[in-house]
Amino acid sequence: MSAEAGTAAPDFTLFDTDGNEFSLNSLKGKKVVLAFFPAVFSGVCDDEMCTFRDALSDYSSLNASAVAISTDARFGNAEFKNKHGLNFPVLSDYKKSTIEDYGVAWPDFAGMDGFTAAQRSVFVIGTDGNIIWKWLCNVPSDLPPFDEVKSQIEALG
Prior knowledge:
There is one protein chain. The chain has a single domain (29-155), classed as Glutaredoxin, CATH 3.40.30.10. It is 29% helix and 24% strand. The chain has helices at residues 43-61, 74-84, 97-101, 146-155; strands spanning 13-15, 21-23, 31-36, 64-70, 90-92, 105-106, 117-118, 121-125, 131-136. The strands form three sheets. Strands 5-4-3-8-9 form a five-stranded mixed sheet. Strands 1-2 form a two-stranded antiparallel ribbon. β4 (64-70), α2 and β5 (90-92) form a beta-alpha-beta unit. The longest helix has 19 residues, at 43-61.
Protein backbone atom coordinates (compact mmCIF):
# COMPACT_ATOMS: atom_id res chain seq x y z
CA MET A 1 0.00 0.00 0.00
CA SER A 2 1.17 3.50 -0.71
CA ALA A 3 -0.23 6.92 0.04
CA GLU A 4 -0.25 9.03 -3.12
CA ALA A 5 -0.82 12.70 -3.91
CA GLY A 6 -4.52 13.32 -4.49
CA THR A 7 -5.66 10.60 -2.08
CA ALA A 8 -6.86 10.86 1.51
CA ALA A 9 -4.01 10.73 4.01
CA PRO A 10 -4.32 7.54 6.06
CA ASP A 11 -5.32 8.42 9.62
CA PHE A 12 -3.24 7.07 12.46
CA THR A 13 -3.13 7.11 16.23
CA LEU A 14 0.37 6.78 17.68
CA PHE A 15 2.06 7.49 20.99
CA ASP A 16 3.84 10.80 21.43
CA THR A 17 6.92 11.22 23.61
CA ASP A 18 4.78 11.57 26.77
CA GLY A 19 2.84 8.36 26.11
CA ASN A 20 -0.29 10.19 24.95
CA GLU A 21 -2.18 9.10 21.87
CA PHE A 22 -1.92 11.51 18.94
CA SER A 23 -4.10 11.19 15.84
CA LEU A 24 -3.67 12.82 12.46
CA ASN A 25 -7.40 13.48 12.70
CA SER A 26 -6.70 15.94 15.54
CA LEU A 27 -5.18 18.30 12.94
CA LYS A 28 -8.24 18.29 10.69
CA GLY A 29 -8.65 21.70 9.04
CA LYS A 30 -4.90 22.45 9.23
CA LYS A 31 -2.17 21.94 6.69
CA VAL A 32 0.24 19.25 7.88
CA VAL A 33 3.86 18.52 7.12
CA LEU A 34 4.23 14.84 7.96
CA ALA A 35 7.87 13.74 8.09
CA PHE A 36 8.94 10.13 8.47
CA PHE A 37 12.56 9.54 9.51
CA PRO A 38 14.63 6.36 9.97
CA ALA A 39 16.30 6.70 13.35
CA VAL A 40 16.80 9.04 16.28
CA PHE A 41 20.34 10.23 17.02
CA SER A 42 21.63 9.65 13.52
CA GLY A 43 23.38 12.64 11.96
CA VAL A 44 21.11 13.12 8.96
CA CYS A 45 17.93 12.69 11.03
CA ASP A 46 19.27 15.22 13.55
CA ASP A 47 19.84 17.74 10.73
CA GLU A 48 16.44 17.06 9.19
CA MET A 49 14.41 17.42 12.38
CA CYS A 50 16.33 20.54 13.48
CA THR A 51 15.65 22.12 10.08
CA PHE A 52 11.93 21.37 10.47
CA ARG A 53 12.11 22.82 14.02
CA ASP A 54 13.63 26.03 12.67
CA ALA A 55 11.05 26.25 9.86
CA LEU A 56 8.07 25.77 12.15
CA SER A 57 7.43 29.49 12.63
CA ASP A 58 7.12 29.78 8.83
CA TYR A 59 4.76 26.81 8.77
CA SER A 60 2.69 28.17 11.68
CA SER A 61 2.21 31.50 9.91
CA LEU A 62 0.82 29.47 7.00
CA ASN A 63 -1.61 27.54 9.28
CA ALA A 64 0.49 24.39 9.05
CA SER A 65 1.67 21.95 11.69
CA ALA A 66 4.63 19.58 11.58
CA VAL A 67 4.56 15.99 12.85
CA ALA A 68 7.46 13.52 12.78
CA ILE A 69 7.24 9.73 12.91
CA SER A 70 9.89 7.06 13.43
CA THR A 71 9.74 3.40 14.40
CA ASP A 72 11.82 4.13 17.51
CA ALA A 73 10.26 3.67 20.94
CA ARG A 74 8.68 6.75 22.50
CA PHE A 75 11.42 6.84 25.16
CA GLY A 76 14.17 7.30 22.56
CA ASN A 77 11.98 9.78 20.70
CA ALA A 78 11.56 11.74 23.95
CA GLU A 79 15.33 12.00 24.46
CA PHE A 80 15.75 12.99 20.81
CA LYS A 81 13.01 15.62 21.04
CA ASN A 82 14.43 17.06 24.27
CA LYS A 83 18.05 17.10 23.05
CA HIS A 84 17.12 19.08 19.95
CA GLY A 85 14.33 21.21 21.45
CA LEU A 86 11.85 19.97 18.86
CA ASN A 87 8.62 21.95 19.01
CA PHE A 88 6.34 19.46 17.26
CA PRO A 89 5.09 15.95 18.03
CA VAL A 90 7.55 13.09 17.49
CA LEU A 91 5.50 9.92 17.29
CA SER A 92 6.42 6.26 17.70
CA ASP A 93 5.24 3.81 15.06
CA TYR A 94 6.75 0.85 16.89
CA LYS A 95 4.18 -1.52 15.38
CA LYS A 96 5.14 -0.21 11.92
CA SER A 97 1.51 0.02 10.80
CA THR A 98 1.65 3.69 9.78
CA ILE A 99 4.82 3.31 7.71
CA GLU A 100 3.05 0.41 5.97
CA ASP A 101 -0.09 2.52 5.38
CA TYR A 102 2.02 5.30 3.83
CA GLY A 103 4.20 2.91 1.83
CA VAL A 104 7.41 4.10 3.49
CA ALA A 105 8.59 0.95 5.28
CA TRP A 106 12.32 0.41 4.70
CA PRO A 107 13.07 -3.29 5.37
CA ASP A 108 16.57 -4.43 6.39
CA PHE A 109 17.51 -0.81 7.04
CA ALA A 110 21.25 -0.07 7.14
CA GLY A 111 22.01 -3.70 6.38
CA MET A 112 20.30 -4.90 9.57
CA ASP A 113 18.48 -8.04 8.49
CA GLY A 114 14.93 -8.02 9.85
CA PHE A 115 14.97 -4.38 11.03
CA THR A 116 12.38 -2.18 9.34
CA ALA A 117 12.66 1.58 9.72
CA ALA A 118 10.74 4.46 8.20
CA GLN A 119 11.97 5.65 4.82
CA ARG A 120 12.90 9.33 5.03
CA SER A 121 9.87 10.94 3.43
CA VAL A 122 7.66 14.01 3.64
CA PHE A 123 3.96 14.36 2.94
CA VAL A 124 2.16 17.70 2.73
CA ILE A 125 -1.49 17.26 3.66
CA GLY A 126 -4.13 19.87 2.87
CA THR A 127 -6.90 21.14 5.15
CA ASP A 128 -9.26 18.63 3.51
CA GLY A 129 -7.09 15.73 4.68
CA ASN A 130 -5.80 14.87 1.21
CA ILE A 131 -2.14 14.41 0.35
CA ILE A 132 -1.04 17.31 -1.82
CA TRP A 133 2.62 16.38 -2.29
CA LYS A 134 5.05 13.69 -1.27
CA TRP A 135 8.80 13.22 -1.36
CA LEU A 136 10.54 9.89 -0.85
CA CYS A 137 14.25 9.43 -0.19
CA ASN A 138 16.06 6.52 -1.78
CA VAL A 139 19.39 7.26 -0.09
CA PRO A 140 19.37 7.55 3.73
CA SER A 141 21.85 10.44 3.64
CA ASP A 142 19.61 12.68 1.49
CA LEU A 143 17.69 15.49 3.14
CA PRO A 144 14.23 16.64 2.02
CA PRO A 145 13.96 19.65 -0.30
CA PHE A 146 12.89 22.02 2.48
CA ASP A 147 12.21 24.96 0.13
CA GLU A 148 9.87 22.75 -1.90
CA VAL A 149 8.03 21.69 1.26
CA LYS A 150 7.44 25.35 2.11
CA SER A 151 6.39 26.12 -1.47
CA GLN A 152 3.81 23.33 -1.36
CA ILE A 153 2.35 24.72 1.88
CA GLU A 154 2.26 28.23 0.43
CA ALA A 155 0.53 26.94 -2.71
CA LEU A 156 -2.35 25.72 -0.55
CA GLY A 157 -3.18 29.35 0.22
